[in-house]
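Narrative of activities, Objective 1.

The group set out to show that a structural description can be obtained from nothing but a protein's sequence at a throughput compatible with the screening campaign. Below is one input-output pair from the validation batch, recorded exactly as produced.
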Amino acid sequence: MSKKIVIITASVLVSVTILFILSVKIASVIIGTGDTHVTNKEGVGLVEVKGMILDSRETIRQLRYFLKKDTVKAVVLRVDSPGGIVAPSQEINAEVKKFAAKKKIIVSMGSLAASGGYYISAPATMIYANPGTITASIGVILKLSNIESLMDKIGIKSYTLKTGKYKDSGSPLRQFSAEDRAMLQSVIDNTHQQFVRAVAEGRKLPIEDVRKIADGRILSGEQAKEHKLVDRLGTLQDAIEEAGRLAGISGEPELLLPPKKKINYLDLLVEGAEGTFNGPLGRAAGGMKMMYEAE
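Output recorded for this entry:
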């Protein structure tokens, strides 16, 4: 590659990076991404979990912010999620449990609060769901791909050096053996039992009662109430008003929002690049994620 081509390529990359940063900055001015602090009035905080649960940090940041604010007497956790990766779901679950030990936290389930979405809700002080909310789906899923035959067709050979027979279990580049299946199934079964215990503990239910419905089935809000997975049927506004009552606030409580997270433009750039490699091909090329996810 000539020096001229290298210089041109570098110039293009720098230009694209600068344009990306400028675009994000302009968007932040238009949308408003600076800190918006809550008022000094007493009220109920609102934390929202929307979409796939892939990271716990932002939800935990908001919960801890409200926990420290004396003016925030309770929090409503609005969940509209099909679930997500196991570890972040467990981290949010632990944070909700800590919050509930000090202040009231009421979950309001939107259209979907299943699997990991239910996992993070279980330790709350009280759970509201709409009658038609899709929830429960207490189970674990691990999806694997195999592209060995595809690589053979296009003439690509893969070689793996490893320190034990299980080190590349689930690899898309070789056949899935019976030993692989047994080992991974034992991990999934153990993770499922963690889910069952978390629900039983959070909802104060006999563990055997939870096991009976912990087969991955989804439930409507009405069905979930029958199984004592939710406490009441109602809307987000119902949950806000209940949070106010439990916190001792007279009248309609003021809804308080957390400060927005400051944008780190370098992180955005890195995340954008990661997204390019996190599609189906990226997953096939490597990476194993156990999911608390409703299919």
